[in-house]
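Input record (one chain):
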Amino acid sequence: MRTNHACFATLTALCLLAACGTDLPAPGVQPSAGDAAVDSAADSLPGDVTADVADLCAHKSCVDLNPCTTDSCVGGACVHAFTTGPCDDGNACTIGDTCGSDGACLPGTITDCTDGVVCTADSCTPTTGCSHTLDDKQCDDGQVCTKDTCTSHGCDHGTSASGCDDGNFCTTDYCSAQKTCGHNLVQKACDDGDACTDDLCQATCAHVQNSAACNDGSVCTTNDSCKGGKCAGGVPLNCNDFKPCTTDSCDPAKGCTHSVIVDTCGNGTCGCGETKASCPGDCK
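The corresponding structure, as predicted from the sequence alone:
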């Protein structure tokens, strides 16, 4: 029969410990200082049996991630002893969480998310905590001349004419110092640049033909006036200089012009610019 020396050494060590009145720690109980001394002494036994038992904890983790337990290794086994005190239940909407007698983290009081701002909607999400949503409707003061907005500091009521819009293209809407609406008529809003129409501004623009005085752009007409929506030239400009030896005319841009008439000597007529001395054949 073949003898297993390792098993024999292990049994022998355990028997020696039992014979000496030394007990291995019971599961769930933290080893005492005396036990540790015995373990240290037993480490010198053949095969280092006690060290092998204690070293079992070196090859695994006893951490259970429970904040309400104290994790330890006793006699090669993990022990998780319940504790009391503060903990975190993982809910951002509770504060003052504490450990219960059963090792569970018990939620504390509900987190107060009130920010004291009347126009915010206060709420709490377990993962992110408190939130404060701005709500402009909570700031409505009933005034048409204010722009009511909610800020992190409370309601703001700035002056705004947006509530005074009368829908009229021809008015400029405004808010008075007393925060009442006003509407200024802007006749130029419909100005078509035509002197021959009266521009009327109502909900939309209207252009009515008139007979007003105007300028047709020619200096050769006077007393121009509007006819049929267009400027028509009036009485022609009188350019007669009452000189028989000039030709009188009018240039629309320059006005009256007077060209000197020079007759041809020898045409049998004593005309302008001819004398008996200069043209005796015509002027006898």
